Amino acid sequence: PPAHSHSDWIGPPDKHSNLRPIIFYVPPEESALERRLREARQEAQASNQRFWARHNRAFRQEKEEFIYSRLKAKGLEMRDESGQKATLNAEEMADFYKDFLSKNFKKHLQYNRDWYKHNFRITFLMGQVALVRALRWLRRRKKNVEQ
Amino acid sequence: MSAARRCRPPRALAGLFVWRLRNTGVRQIPCRFVHLYHVANDRLITFQYFNFLKRMYVTWCNKDLSQRAKPKSDSIVSPFHELQQLDQEKKVVHKISPVSPVQQSLSETSSRNELREMKSAAETEDSVIPVGAESKEDRRWKEMKLRLDDLPGILARLSKIKLTALVISTASAGFAMAPVPFELTCFLLASLGTGLASCAANSINQFFEVPFDSNMNRTKNRPLVRGQISPLLAVCFAASCGIPGIVLLTLGVNPLTGALGAFNIFLYTCCYTPLKRMSIANTWVGAVVGAIPPVMGWTAATGSLDAGALLLGGILYSWQFPHFNALSWGLREDYSRGGYCMMSVTHPGLCRRVALRHCLALIGLSTVAPVLDITTWTFPIISLPINLYISYLGFRFYRDADRSSSRKLFFCSLWHLPMLLLVMFTCKKSVLEKEDKGDLPGGAHETAMEIRLP
């Protein structure tokens, strides 16, 4: 993002976590409240990124292992004659999906709780910041009108 | 397909369906589950094009959902809600638009893909080019600044406007089926209130699901995921839609409808959305969410919760299951990775059984309609073919459990509901008829404006 910009910038989805990173703009006269908001957002972003990157990586890895073990059981190689990666059909993959979902169930419950907490806190702080800014703007307007 | 769309002569409904079904076979979609939803959306777009009512936004889930539907009527799977809703209208004063509240996923499953992407994908034969252009756009860093001219589009996507339109359609179907003289103002207020409530519910749903949506193909282009709008603005928008909507329903229509609307918003946002990640019971909750709009339409017209309202709600409730379960069958990988507890992933046998069970229930419910004096006895007879057909596809899905049978069932569900509601309306027991039989209180006949289809 350009140096002169006064707003946050959001980028393309991350390769591992599929989340879009945000670069936060730090205004020179950032109030304590605004700083709390920015830090909350940064913390949420970091935590989300960690979770999803690890989760997706685990998914891909376990999927590979599953395909490999199933192919081996069937007596096939990972790549067939044309050099293409051999895949299992949807019904066979269904066992893996079911397994993966149940294995990660607790992890997801915990993440859900954290995510909802982050989300509400950030939105609430945003609300506070917006309110403060609006009041400040109104006060300035009043001052201009009075002058 | 674009050529066929270009030469769009007015077609008989049957011809339309035949064309659409044929088209389904013609289009060769690479075997990717995620494309199922894209294809489904595409179908929906082309199908919708034949609607008399021009919808501004063509994308869902929608989902459902795309999914719809979600929720507000995002019932079954997120895509469901977002799932496709099929819209159909008749050129009468009173329009009937069956709607399948897409459940989320579908709600979600309601998945509504990005408007631009869908449009471009629909416009060109080759979907690679638009996808390429879209991903290039995606690769860039964007300033997180809200542009006012983008706002309508962003809010439309946030509120899953297509799904909302379908929800309004189901509600108006409920209004139409109520055995009272038609009042235009009441109808408009009810529709507007329902629409606002649906927008609010959908926005809150998206607000809750940002990281999950970004990880699923169907939903990764939503406004909050892309940072086009801040979460605060999404919540404010939801509040500014929901509160006036419910107030409008309570004061302008009647308190019962308002209460149902508020309850539905609560059910969708606070029960269905969190439940999606905790237990497969979310599908049933989502089906209730989808069933409530026609009940709301009925109570808006009559002011009371009669058996007819419950029957209409029951029909939509049963319909959600083949619709959603078939759609979620193709999205198992995304659901598994995203951590959504859906029947298709954890209890595949149950998934298919339930779908079949509810297809058969539709036949039963259609037979109950004349018993409750809502329609004449021609309704179960005329609707029997389509109900049998969807039950047959449900049975095939149950037996084969593969992608092609799930797709067939899903696409059938898209046209089945509009047709069923249409047939229901044409077979509606006339208010005047009832008056002749002395069923209605005497004062009604001067004001009776029964809308009858030719």
Explain what this protein looks like in three dimensions.
Chain A contains three helices and two strands. With 147 residues, chain A is an all-alpha fold. Chain A has one domain (9-146). Chain A has a two-stranded antiparallel ribbon. Chain A is elongated. The model of chain A has no long low-confidence stretch (mean pLDDT 87). Chain B is mainly alpha-helical. The model of chain B is unreliable at 1-128 and 437-450 (pLDDT under 50). Chain B is globular, with a radius of gyration of 20 Å. Chain B is 65% helix and 1% strand. Chains A and B meet through strand 1, strand 2, helix 1, helix 2 and helix 3 of A and strand 2, helix 10, helix 11 and helix 15 of B. Strand 1 of chain A pairs antiparallel with strand 2 (142-143) of chain B, so a sheet runs across the interface.
Characteristic terms for this protein:
heterodimer, A: 147 residues, mainly alpha, two-stranded antiparallel sheet, 3 helices, B: 454 residues, Tetracycline Repressor, domain 2, Four Helix Bundle (Hemerythrin (Met), subunit A), 1% strand, globular
Number of continuous helical runs of chain A: 3
- Tell me the radius of gyration of chain A: 24 Å
The major β-sheet of chain B equals:
none
Category from helices, strands and their pairing of chain B: mainly alpha
- How is the main sheet of chain A built? 2 strands, antiparallel
Q: Strand order across the biggest sheet of chain A?
A: 1-2
Report the uncertain regions of chain A. Answer: none
Q: What is the N-to-C order of secondary-structure elements of chain B (H for helix, E for strand)?
A: HHHEHHHEHHHHHHHHHHHHHH
Helix proportion range of chain B: 55-70%
Oligomer: heterodimer
What is the rounded Rg of chain B? Answer: 20 Å
Strand percentage of chain A lies at under 5%
The overall strand count of chain B is 2
The ordered string of helix (H) and strand (E) elements of chain A is EEHHH
Portion in beta strands of chain B: under 5%
Give the number of domains of chain A. Answer: 1
The chain-level mean pLDDT of chain A equals 87
Main location (chain A): mitochondrion
Subcellular location (chain A): Mitochondrion inner membrane
Membrane topology (chain A): Peripheral membrane protein
Family (chain A): Belongs to the COA8 family.
